[in-house]
Amino acid sequence: MTAGKYVVVVGGGVLGVSTATHLQRDGVAVTLVTEGELADGASGRSLSWLNSAGTRSAAYHALRMAGIDRYRTLFAQDPGREWLRFDGALHWSLDEDSMRERHRAEVAHGYDSKLVSDHPGLDPAAFPEVAVHNPGEGWVSLPHLIEHLAAEFTALGGEIVTGTGRASVTTAGGVATGVTTEGGQRFEGDAVVVACGAATPGVVAELGVTIPDASPLSMLVLTQPAEAGVKAVLNTPRVALRPNPGGTFALDHHWYEDRITEAADGTCSIDESVVKELAAEASALLDGGVTLTAASWKLGRKPIPGDGEPVFGELSAVQRCHVAFTHSGATLGLIAGELLAGEIRTGEPHPMLEPFRPDRFRP
């Protein structure tokens, strides 16, 4: 499936843009359509921690490790990029036994994992007696990555259409034939990729396909620039933190999910006092009396499939309609786009995606 073939990708987040770019690299003509602007959904409010920490299935771990590998290749091309870093990560919880068990599980499958009692840039008074340090982990700013990929995609001849509103997959005889937007635009294609974050289950539901959805409400806060010495990603009981381009920091957590209000049109709001509380939790971790101040925050649904595992591949009920829906969109962004593009181009299923097919939800 190369010259003369066309694919329509729905979604301007990392999974959609990555898949579109990999297809265009391989000589498949692609049109990418997105409801709003690029990276204005979940990819624009993701902590985007690159990891395979903790415990999960062997297949999921292998896919995540391949995902990290692709980022390392990108990093090696230009180690000076401020939007992609590998400075490690720290995790601690209120349950020391669970942390030690996490460490043992990581070591058991060869994941780089250490137990530490301090770390540069963090206030010793805020540091627990023991934390798990994963030196090989990193982070990416997905809006910057998407901009980087989109520039390559368009240079190769790919077309990006923004502001289309919600899109629906069109079919004929049980085969995907393209996409129609709510504004009446129609894009014909030999295959369709649905990669629109938490909206993905709703789009395929119109085709009679069920993908369970557990996407919670979430918020990402970006701070004002601050002179803080911490470079690692932090996952703590009250705040998750990572460095961000421009000397800023990205913050999130889940304790305030029930304090986010979602309107009927999908827009979300939260009291500013919660934002300030999260920034204060982050400030309390930093050495040197650094105070973090929120500059902006974004709210919306965080894409999570119902069983927590990724959903990748063609729908058996609608041939040539492919789905990409996962919580780990950052870590899997490059590898998922690569493998999905290969499947679409060649028609050959990739074995690493076999455990994550959407058909696992069929009754």
UniProtKB/TrEMBL annotation:
Keywords attached to this entry: Oxidoreductase
MF annotations from Gene Ontology: oxidoreductase activity
PANTHER family: GLYCINE OXIDASE (PTHR13847:SF289), SARCOSINE DEHYDROGENASE-RELATED (PTHR13847)
This protein's record includes keyword Oxidoreductase: yes
InterPro entries the record matches: FAD-dep_OxRdtase, FAD/NAD-bd_sf
Residues in FAD dependent oxidoreductase domain copies: 7-341
Gene Ontology annotations for the cellular component aspect, listed alphabetically: cytoplasm
Name of one Pfam family that matches: DAO
Protein name: Fructosyl-amino acid oxidase
The UniProt record lists the keyword Oxidoreductase: yes
Lineage, broadest ranks: Bacteria, Bacillati, Actinomycetota, Actinomycetes, Pseudonocardiales
